[in-house]
Give the backbone structure.
Amino acid sequence: MTMTVEKRGVTGKAAPAGRPRRRDSYALFLLPGVLAFLAVIIVPFLMNTYVGFTDWQGVGSPSWTGLANYRELMDDSDFWASFRHSLFMVVAMAAVPTAVGLVLAAALFDYIGKHFGSKVVAVLRACFYLPQVLPIAVAGIVWSWILAPDNGSLNALLKAVGLGSWQQDWLGDPDLALYSVMGVMVWVQIGFPLVVFMAGLQRVDPQLHEAAELDGAGWWRRFWHVTLPQIRPEIYVVLTWCTVAALKVFGAVYVLTKGGPGGATNVPSYFSFTTFFEKTQVGYGAAISTVLTVIILALSLIGLKLQTRAEERA
Amino acid sequence: MLTTRRRVVATAVLTAGALLLTSCGDSDSGSSGDGKTLKLWHYEGPNSAMGQAWNEAIKEFKATHPGVKVEFEEKGFEQIQKTAPMVLNSSDAPDVMEYLKGNASAGLLSKQGLLTDLTQEAKARGWDKKLSASVRTTSVYDTNGVMGSGKWYGVPNYAEYTMVYYNKDLFKKYGIAEPKTFDELTAAMDKFVQNKITPLANAGAEYPAQQYLYQLALSKADRAWVDSYQLYKGKTDFHDPAWTYAAETFADWVKKGYIAKTSSSTKAEDAGVSFIQGKSPIFFSGSWWYGRFIDEVKFDWGTFLWPDTQLSPGSGGNIWVVPKGAKNKELAYDFIDITMSKKIQNLLGNKGGVPVAADASAITDPKSKTLIDNFNALSQRDGLAFYPDWPVPGYYDVLVSQTQKLITDSEKPDGYLDALQDAYDKGAPKQ
């Protein structure tokens, strides 16, 4: 079958024997995409990289300073603090949602689906996915109301159930703010892995579960030894995607805390934004963006490599 | 004849070239216009005093310039703040636009040659006579983009200043008279704390917190201190008596409960609403709240200038600038002239704004009269001290971030002042 397809041209007619295949004709279809990629990704990236080697306020002519911005970056404690916060965001946006999403997906698929039917599963799945549909600005404003110190609904709820001593300044306490933002991001993210894993579970051969069940494996052992290995490609995709999202998170920090209090929730993308637009240190901001892009690119490639290796093993 | 491959390559090169040319913009941005269209941008809300005044000015302009079309675009504050340098560098620049005053904004653009020198127009049309010295400070910029001297690059039509808003009903309820001295103000705050009321509305995530702090510093400062800090006419030492007093007093006020420990993450809107809802009896903030309080506050309220001090945060308002690449500059000058006319200035004053060239007898609304009288008192004693975030680009974020630390007690006053000094020294022009 494959051979037949390869010998046919775009019209479906068999290519004449002895003539090379006309790959050039396919190149035309790639052209718009390549041009758009050049104009939207490559050219701005190269320009950003160039600007990162200059001292520039965004207007006038940039002056070439070589590696000065990168040297300054190495000694900038705010920059490194923002990267440490990024690692916390990776936990909140990739690790926790992936783990919780897996358990929830398996529970919905194996338990809720069997006992309450597919409609209940569909409704619950939609509910978990809802935060992904909401614009982050809307979600952020709503959560800032919920977490407000004086009249926020979380503190009001704690007081109402007799846990008044647990009330906190969730976004204003530097020891708590990062964890509060992380909590919001877990809520935002959880729907994405859940939906991907549920789609993955659809393609797992039920006979594998039945065989394991006959062998006396309980739910947890079936989940660990059958479900997990079967949906490993989905896990890699989700982890890579969510890690990248966590490293470039911006909207939630901007709406919820603006990097505060006292820089406690600052992340590289927000740090870059303020350096660009508030401090008008465009060269330095570009250097931060370049470092961030390189890190994201490296992590994405590692993720893709791991995924490919896992698929080959499977 | 081109082969398919060559044709593909040629198309790609041409398209990429066209894209690059498009992104570079039109180099002929300074070409003259037809004199038939005025392209105008501002970001005042239609219900604000300024928005209403500018809309009236547009009507007046149309009446006095028959056949000229006004292309007005209402922009967002952030939109203009973040993109102005790029827009002014392109052929899309308007003929006249509202822009932010200060070294880091209008000063930066003037230094880069993106704004038109208005010096001749200011003299010819008498704008220089209409503006008081302290209001005029933000109109002129030197070759380094530092305000206070040099050429005219902008014209403010209104002013703004900070004052103490207070809830007369709550003061009456707890038997507190309007404070006339600083000691009476602190005594009033003590009384509210005793009654389990946090007296000051505050917002640590935005400007109100830093304005409390700056006002405290100003109460121990003089004009030379302001000039040193804002205009770099001398060395600014953040461990001097004024800044030290401000940081220590602010931290003390948090400890005493005058300022809520939980206000580190709240925004200016939260602080304003807290005053409007009668939860906080005192709010120290700008005249930009005045019109809204007139509309929304249900209790009896009043204002007074910060007691026992000559200086307060305040300045000329945002300014009209004419981009270097504007196509119809004469029309732009005419429009600015109309906004400076008595008719528009009086309207601005009666709608809750602070006009800079109004006819005092034409302001009939009593609340507006108080607002303008207080401004005149401040202006006459040369008391406008600008805003704490002006001297250094990005200093607003530094002040927010560091003052949050003072509120949450994660930094002591000494460390706080060190951080301010460090950021100031990095950003201020080298002397």
Chain B touches chain A through 47 residues (CB under 8 Å).
